[in-house]
Queue: 4 jobs
Job 1
Amino acid sequence: MDMIALSNRFGTATVSLRGAQIRSYKPAGMAEDVLFAPKTTTLEGTKDDRGGIPVCWPWFGRNGEPGTASHGFARYSFFEVRGQKETADGTILTLGLKPTDETRKVWPYDFDLEYTIRLGATLDLSLRTRNTDARSVKITEGLHPYWRVSDRRQVRVDGLDGCPYCFADVSQVADQTWQGTFVPDRHFDHVFTLAKREQTITDAGWGRTVVMRGSGYSKIVIWTPEGQFENFTAEEALHFVCVEPATLFRPDAYTLAPDTEHVLSVSIAVAQSQK
């Protein structure tokens, strides 16, 4: 599998061309990776490759056509390298994806998807969708970070107070309002309609704080599994929490007219307290 390693004075990151998936991110001077990686990885066909930061496009979750793979085909497609450059502010890697015979089988549109990753004082991610088809298209999308933590039961997520939300296991209607801090201490699949553009993930065990800011998305998803999955145990699942910037549910999809574009952007800042 093609992997790209980025390294500069700000830290290191590893990116897979399969799915443009960021698999590792470690700011300079930090002992623990910011991203969770399962001990076993399948990397086969359309099986979920959990961990790191997957790209979910042109639909998020099971919001594609009936029978299509969860989280869209970009997650399983190989991206091309469009550019790499060094600047005073960091290393910039640009990846791209265009339609193939395989993508047209599940999504019969022309498009240009470009993903820019900048490793600098912050990790800056920009996912640009351009509709190159003659028809309008509807899209849900998102990034799916698996934030590595010492123990998710000791983690708090802030920036959701006052946000309407739903528990996606049972409903897609945001008919409840969250109050206060969120502690991901059990199974959640909560979808929050954003009222704020900044969320903070505080890990008391490692004295680490992740701040996520962005634009171009309408929801934050918090997902933590119940039990084990095919490539991690229930014990391993205690060491990550997914806090995901996304636009999801088919009624909330955005529409791109021909020859127009949309950009989802996220900036990730990580701070480590001194012990």
Note: The radius of gyration is 18 Å.
Job 2
Amino acid sequence: MFPIQSSVLSCRPPAVTITLIVINVAVFLFQAGLPEYVLDAFIQDFGLVPARQTWALERAPWRLDLWAVPALTSMFLHGGWAHIAGNMVFLWVFGDGVENRLGHGRFLAFYLLTGLVAGQTQALLDPESAIPLVGASGAISGVLGSYLLLYPRAWVTVLLPVLFIPFFFEVPALLFLLFWYFQQLLSGTLWALSDAAAHATGGVAWWAHIGGFVAGLTLLGLFLDRQHKGYRRREYCDRYRYSERF
């Protein structure tokens, strides 16, 4: 199932969500224009490499370029067209509602922090890995976790291709997000039980997704703006009401 839109709509543009999408796409287009050997070096330098981070924290913690900078820049790198397309659709569908409740500045801080937690979760579980971690998935997972708490009764329109035929239908956000989370948890558990050779081949950083999602659940209360609660529908599960201040 692939999300297309949510029943939660704000009355103002989600400026930070749009800006994050633009930055991610711009960086990816820059990556796409690099020669392969330059791209490999670029990913190594600005992706989060757990083994390099482990070494730097133990022996040269003042070398922020070896661990702190990549932890941040890795969130804006992607491994392919499908990778960035999927991430940006998820960010667009769910980022709008979360930014609406947190406010622009708080949402940006929340996004970056949950992304950092996500990357560190994966790095802690595989500290000797030399494979760079890249992608906005961890930060977006944090957005999904917060969305679950903010809008459990919302609806999500999803796309389900069956034999190349697209089917569109609506599911409760609670069901969709819990299904997504347990899918990551199952895949992450199978990855953890696999041998070292399987880890060395790379793939999806499942535990970054899990760490980001849990961070979104637990950190939301620190960022929720209780004075300015943004805009949402009076009953956000009813898509036929007018938008009102919440």
Note: Residues 231-246 have pLDDT under 50 and may be disordered.
Job 3
Amino acid sequence: MHNKSSLLISLFIFITFSALNSYAQVAQDSTTEFKPKGNLWGYVFGDVDYKAKADTVGNNLGSPGRGGNQYSKLPENARMFQMRRVYLGYNYDLSAKFSAEILFAAEDDITQGSGNLVAPGDMLSDNKFAPYLKLANIRWKNIFKGSDLVFGQVATPAFPLLSESVWGYRSIERTVSDIRRTPSFDQGVTLQGHFDENANFGYNIMVGNGTGAKPSNYVFMWFYGDIWAKFMDKKLIIDLYQDYQKIDWTAIEDGKTGAFHHDRNMTKLFVAYTVPKFTIGVEAFMNTLMGDVQENSATKTYYRTTIATAVSAYARGRVYKDKLGFFARYDNFDPSHKIGDITGDKRIISYAPLTSQYDPTTKEQFITFGLDYTPFLNVHVMPNLWLNTYECALPASDYFLNSKGSDAKGTDAVIRLTVYYLFGKKEGVRF
């Protein structure tokens, strides 16, 4: 993998210097005066929430409730007004060839703690809502025909260009892979573009830190790749995504600890059919996490590989003109495909997943549906139901169950009125 990463970085360097030469020649011939311009924009979404039902079954780490979403571990009958995302961005065209982007975000997507002691993710020490720098990058447009080079903190190839925009309801829930914390933004360099004049076939490749908004403290980088195609006058969209990250890579140091070879790679396929009146889409992934479960016997530590799969299907469309729409979605998440390798060794007395979003002992199913009322352009009022169910993946005879029981099921159910509004920027096709 080291040779591959060196090759990819060398490719970016070659492209950059080639474009520098070509751009210098174009600049000499340009006589059109360009006037720099910028645009301030933002959007907000939040809810009036009522948690009608709460999961109370502890996961294998012993905490009350399962899951890692904004409603996980909140108590039943919780009522709240909640701003789940606030964006403030600025886009600036420096020249005909260069543009810059900056975005500050405050997002309440991750709950921490247990019981009634639950704190949202983006909080200061005094529990006030806090923004952070989510995007800051510069784009070299048309570095060569049909392609842009973007450097800085950027949106990754995993979501924004197709799957998230076609789903169109980030204000209701993230995409199925975003829920599992595949980075939607990262610090790095990306090359994105299309192969043909009509932009029916394109690509997006990136090398990044894999740490989102945080400075990197890893030795290894995250590699992203995405290719897409649009057919039938761009009504049918097919998108194939692949990523890879080497996380830890240590040899055997003593007789008590096995070699710790820890990496992950995801393959994701997205297919959608979209017309102005309705859209249907399916997104599916398989994520292989090598060495992601740590097991302990009385004398030694082992690392096991897990495989997780997920399928997400959704539909959205119009009910009445551009004033009333609907949306519905179902996700099935199964991280338990190699559970037997983890629990089958009777020497093991304890184990723990290193990636909490991929605990192989718990399957999840997610359902949401609702209406989208648009009283005014770029303002949406959406009554909806948010429902996530959990099921133990361990067999009834497994000794790891202890007192949990193989039929341990639970549900987080939230009734919401979601409000979303956008300013300073044209909204994409909604229905």
Note: The two ends are 42 Å apart (CA to CA).
Job 4
Amino acid sequence: MTVPPEYHLYYLQVPPELARSLGDFALDPSIPLPVESRSGKVPDLTELSWEQIVAAMLKIMAWERDHRDFGYYRDFILAVRPQIYQELSSTGIVKAQSKDFRLAEEVFLALEGLDPTNPRTQLNLALLYDDQAEFLSQKDRSVEAEACLSQAQKRFSQAMTATPPLPDAFFYAGFFHLKQKNLERARGLFDAFFELGRDESKINAARKALADYERRDNFDRLFKEAYDFILLGQEEKGIERIENFLADNPSVWNAWFLLGWAHRRLSHWSEALSAFEKALEREGDPVDLYNEMAICNMELGQLKEAQRLLEKALRRDGENTKILSNLGVLALRSGNRELARGFFESVLEYDPEDPLAERWLKELAHNGTELEG
């Protein structure tokens, strides 16, 4: 809780003749009344409204919990504005939704000062800090985002200690921990919510969120296993894992790419080409896919189609050394050694240490050498 730098209050003494009762609350002239002045001048008591005084007292509720007259000001506010909790809660939520985090925080902290036992205020603060953390992360302000996440977790924990329990605290805390990829904690919180909650729409939302996360988690595991198997030279096992992945999630383009890569490593050219085409249909990276499809077409003897694909890739990325190198290989396959030499020399202009281009140029330097792509 950081006091805003612009925070500054003046205190005005109430003349005895202005003492009065507000319901069961008696105004004490010996206790000065706070007021905020943005002009830098001491305000005139005769020009003040009760609303201005209450607004200043709310700042004390938010930022000065150890103020010597804290209890008196809290009673004053509740006497003047008995419905203030409902009014301010709505204001805080609106401010949070509009990303006015500082003002929303002040509103909720003021409500906490008025009634520290209300779990709904703790929950609203938790949701506020969670939203603010996401906003800061998007702005690459990771240190501040981490501080907000810590505050959010603290407030969720406080909200869940209420008696009687507040079901919504467990509901939203479950989503919070799901976002932090803490599945076991989220599952425990949702289980508590299922026992406490009566809102069928929220119960269904929580069950769906758990199922979706578990399905994605299983997909991620299968995907990683497939990738690892292929890297280790166990392409058949990798293909089995990625096909299991695709059976439930056929729209993921890079899964089709991974399947094509595994088949290509096994020289299954037709199967690889089919997988790469599916990846392209699902809006995968066109440059890499054109390149991979061209390699498959070369191996299948479809040199014109391979050239068409490589030229399309080159138009998108004219300095891509993989594309230039494969155009060189294609030129060799077509019997055009000078054109191939030009492509390999272009590769070395962009990457002087490219080993493949160096090897092909050395081979080309030996007249009469038969070159295979």
Note: Confidence is low (pLDDT under 50) at residues 368-373.
